[in-house]
Amino acid sequence: DTGVSQNPRHKITKRGQNVTFRCDPISEHNRLYWYRQTLGQGPEFLTYFQNEAQLEKSRLLSDRFSAERPKGSFSTLEIQRTEQGDSAMYLCASSLSGGKYFGPGTRLTVL
Amino acid sequence: QKEVEQDPGPLSVPEGAIVSLNCTYSNSAFQYFMWYRQYSRKGPELLMYTYSSGNKEDGRFTAQVDKSSKYISLFIRDSQPSDSATYLCAHAPDSNYQLIWGAGTKLIIKP
Hints:
heterodimer, A: 111 residues, mainly beta, seven-stranded mixed β-sheet, four-stranded antiparallel β-sheet, 0% helix, globular, B: 111 residues, six-stranded mixed β-sheet, 11 strands
């Protein structure tokens, strides 16, 4: 499968715990995006990498959120001290130019 | 006013009908327009990607951009039950930038 992959697909955690998600983009894509989506809404932009450089962060991304793309390939998104409001689908997308291709998402439930 | 407006539906049509899905947007500087299909609990799937005005056709799908009226459309010919999904429109000022999304229209194709 040469598409964008995300792991885990589902994560259930208790409030206050830390979670980390991984995204593996399409191999030749140099741009990687993280979005968050809640039911009935379009995705909300979180952050964007070009190669290993994090070029933009949304104001939605509080200091509890951090993302890395250390070698310009896969990326991780960490949420510290999770809150119930963090429950959502976390989507990763990659692109080379033009269209952005999304992974299947990681569904986070914070109890 | 939201940057991208999209009727949430649901839009229910019989199998074989031509489907018309629409969005309006507010920022005339945006040049890139995309349509995504999203099945329940899955990531968005890129269907069509257009630049500036005009039409683009791919199989049963046609995307249309009217910049003068800030209106974008997706037409689906010979609709099938497998087309039942939520359709999201999105746009961006350039190909690198993060996408601005509509909330999606839920489409139901009745057999």
